[in-house]
Amino acid sequence: MQEYVGLGEELIFISMGLASIVAVAVFLERFLYFKKSMGKLNDTYLEEVRNSLQEEPEVNWKTNVSDESIYSRFVNFALRQLSLGKKGLDESLEGQILSEKLLLERRLPILNTLGNNAPFIGLLGTVLGVIKAFHGLGTLGSSGAEVVMRSISTALLATAAGLAVAIPVVMANNYFSRKAKVILQNLEILKKEFLSFQINKSKV
């Protein structure tokens, strides 16, 4: 029985190490994606787009924002829909927003899962370590107190490892979730501006 307890304790530490590697990999991938999608001129670009939609009879702005920018991609999609004169612009833009939402939230469930479960995995490691320590105390008696204390110390490291993984992962997940929320809200604003532009253009 104690062999399985010791093996389980080792597996807990291995799983914590793997979880930290996965978390770092997801964080770097999401960081690079958001950086590429946001670009450097998005605030200026959004202001130019909104001003043009509100003040100009035709949409004719130009910027050097990368086509990989999520806002530029959305605007180009909306412009294509307007140029084609298709009906159901509202549904088309809503579908594009949902498509962008899926891309923004990709792999975030991994961070959410790790952040929620890493402390419990660490706690399981601590429980296994305490079981091992008390078994040693019962076997060795008072002469094995030093060994038991070392076992308990190692067991507490599992909880510390779980928290060390969970805290930055939760912070990263909240950061990316907030970023995604702001981007989607800006896309909703652009959608309303395009719909208003379409209505005003049809009245001319």
**Share of helix, binned:** over 70%
Mean model confidence by pLDDT: 81
- Parts with pLDDT < 50 across at least 5 consecutive residues: none
Q: What is the terminal-to-terminal distance? A: 83 Å
How many helices does DSSP assign?
6
Beta-strand percentage range: under 5%
How would you describe the oligomerization state of the chains in this entry? single chain
The value of Rg in angstroms is: 27 Å
Structural class: mainly alpha
Number of discrete domains: 1
The count of DSSP E runs of length 2 or more, i.e. the number of strands, is 0
Instruction: Sum up the overall morphology in one term.
Output: rod-shaped
Largest sheet: none
Order of helices and strands: HHHHHH
Protein described:
The protein has 204 residues and is mainly alpha-helical. The chain has one domain (2-56, 66-203). 85% of the residues lie in helices and 0% in strands. It contains six helices and no strands. It has helices spanning 2-38, 42-55, 70-84, 89-104, 108-140, 145-203. Helix 1 (2-38) runs antiparallel to helix 5 (108-140), helix 2 (42-55) packs parallel to helix 6 and helix 3 (70-84) packs antiparallel against helix 4 (89-104). It is rod-shaped and about 90 Å long. The N and C termini lie far apart (83 Å). The mean pLDDT is 81. It is a multi-pass membrane protein. Pfam families: MotA_ExbB. Belongs to the exbB/tolQ family.
